Amino acid sequence: MNKKHFETEAIRTQIERTEFLEHSAPLYLSSSFVFEDAEDMRASFAEEKERNLYSRFTNPNTTEFVDKICKMEGAEAGYAFATGMSAVFSTFAALLNSGDHIVSARSVFGSTHALFTKFLPKWNIETSYFKVDEVDSIEELIQPNTKILFAETPTNPAVDVLDLEFLGEVAKKHNLILIVDNCFATPYLQKPIDFGAHIVVHSATKLIDGQGRVLGGVAVGPADLIREIYLFSRNTGPALSPFNAWVLSKSLETLAVRVDRHCENALKVAEFLEAHDKVNFVKYPFLKSHPQYEIAKKQMKKGGSIVAFEVKGGVEAGRRFLNNIKMCSLSANLGDTRTIVTHPASTTHSKLSEEDRLQVGISDGLVRVSVGLENVEDVIADLEQALG
Ligand SMILES: *Cc1c(COP(=O)(O)O)cnc(C)c1O
User: Fold this and answer.
1) Is the CB of 156 inside a 6 Å radius of any atom of ligand 1?
2) What is the pLDDT of residue 1?
């Protein structure tokens, strides 16, 4: 049968059901699986059979989750992790050797940046960075030992957009592995593999769960590279729990409808903020004023759920705005049914100097809104009263 549509794959990709013929996927809370006899056990361990042995390796629920993500991203294979960060770390740890080099966008998730600056250097792996407005100089950063090109788009928290097609061309020309963290867009809005990415990583904690319940992560890509990641992971133990895999697999069934509404709400919030006189500027990929609007239109189906804007009046105005919020949540998460408001300069990025913050587009008054699924009029009313 031909490949089905995105929504259909998300709902109809399923593991085999038990003798009870459950309609909805059963939960396999089992740490291990039994063998028929000594020969079955030998053949299973020799990987002559594709079957579940132990849930640190595979489990029916994690397999269903991974199969769905692979279909959505257009990838051959994948492995599911306990968190987004274990997916990112294990991918680097499995694919790199001491002495290798990474070229990465400067705006990456905080813990990914900590991995590059604090931990990978312990194994003699260094990273060079390019800023969003410096993509033309990426090739100058490439060294003979460069192995990976890494990026996230849209970026956190400044909501800049990087040109995936361009990154794919650079990776191809220099024989690099292009890894894209597709967490902000989800495969519903953007498929990096179509633009030349080799591996896509996700924090499933965000829009994939979408309801603020569980942590999870996943890496998908070509079978040979995923095999390396799988072997590293089955021996080091960052596996996703079967329960969380079951939750996340269910969540994927509603990803398209949820993300559609997130995007519709976010665009309305962005338009409201852009017209407000206490706001200096708004960054949302599908607003014409966004500096990379044309690139966003080329590679994304819709603009996503995150809006960044600058309140007039700097740090104090940013903090005052947060203190005035009544309904939306002040929380560090994103991609939830609940709208979440954060002020990066006084929280997640407060340890950076002002100069370093500006390098990644975080001015003192920058506010990040993860627009949820409440009625958007209520969200806008809360933001409006908080702007005063
Ligand atoms: C949250 C996040 C991560 C880390 O995911 P966890 O599930 O919290 O470990 C990685 N990348 C991006 C872009 C994120 O937003």
Assistant:
1) yes
2) 52
